[in-house]
Amino acid sequence: MFQYAQSVLEALSQLDSHYEVTIAYSDTDWSAILARFGLTGVALKHARVGQRLADMVMVLRLSGALTRALGQMFNPLVRELLALRCDVWIFPAQESLSYQMPIRAIGTTHDLMHRYEAIFPEVSSKGRYGIREHRFRNIANWCAGVMVDSEVGRQHVVESYGVSEAKVYPLPYVAPSYLHDKRERADFDAHYHLPVKFLFYPAQFWPHKNHLRLVDAVHRVAERYPDIALVLSGGKHHQFDEIQRRVEDLGMQECIRFVGYVPDADLSGLYRRARALVMPTFFGPTNIPPLEAMTIGCPVLVSGIYGMPEQCGDAALYFDPNSVTEMVERIQQVWSDDALAAEMVRKGLELSLHNGQPQFNRKLAKIVDAIFELPEPISKP
User: Which domains, and CATH codes, for the chain?
Assistant: First the structure.
C-alpha cells in the first residue's frame, strides 16, 4: 500500500494544470516524499484521533449512511478534510475513512483475499473477516469509484458486492521508481554476504506467503543441484520460527539464508544479484515483487493464481502454489538453463517498458476525469 500510494502521488504530480492537487497526510515522513515529486501537503492535526474514530465506527459495523452522518458531526478529521474544500478525495490505502466522507471519494481495494482465501488466519481469524468484509462492502457501495489492481480484482469486487463494472477501475501496480537508482551502499556485499548464485523471495513470514513449501522444494532441488541457494528477506515475525526450524530440520542452513528486513534502497541490489525471484504466494490478485524483479532484469517464478498471468504474461514461469513438485520443476529450469534465464530477463524488461509509471499516470488521470463527471452529491446506493 505504501508503494501504491507513492505511485499515486507521482501520477498526481503529472496531472493537467486545470486540476489543483491538495495532499493531506498524517505522518511527517511523507513531507520528504512529496518534495521528491514537487508536491506540497497539508499536515493533518486530527489524523490520529480521527482515524481511530473511523476505525471504531467500522468495527461497530454501522451503516454507510449513519457513518457519514456521524462523521460530519463527531469526527474532527472528517471536518478537517471537508474544510479543505476539495471536490474529490483519493484514498490509495483502502482506509475506512474513504467511505465515511460525505463527498465524492475514490477508494481502493487491493485484494479481497478474506473472501477467496479465508483458510488463512491473517485475513479471517479474530474477527478479521467481518471487519474486512464490512470495510470493503462499504467502499464498493459508497465510494464514487474503486481502484483495483487488475481485471481479476475488478471481477472480485463486482461479484462480491454487486456493483457495476463501470464503477471499478483497474489501476495496476507498477515497480517503484526508486528501484532505478543504481547507487548502492558501499558495504552492500560485506553486509549481506550473498551467495554467488541464489533465488530471492522478499516477503513477510505470513502463512499465505507459503515459505514452508518453498523450503521443501529447495531441499528437493538440492538433491540434483547441490549449489542451490535461497535468500529470504523479511522481519522475523509471524511464522518465522516454524520456517527456521524446518530449515534446520532439513539441514539446509547453508543453502537457505535469512537476511532480515531489507530497506527499500537495498532491494534493487538483491534483485540484480539474484538468479530469479521465486514467489509461491497464495494471495493476489497481483503482487508488486514480480514487477520489481522484471524492471531490474531478474527472472520471475510465481504462483499462477488469480491475476498473476494477467500481470506477468509470458515473462514469468508459473506453478501451482500447492504443488512442491511444480515448484521444483520451475526452479530447476531457471537454475540450470542460462538461455532460458536470459530470455526471461528480456521478456521481463520488455513488459516493464509497457507497464510503468507513465502508463500508471495516464490511467489515473482518466479515472480522475471520470469521477469529476459524476454528479455531486452521490446518491445513496
Answer: 2-174+358-372 (3.40.50.2000), 177-355 (3.40.50.2000)
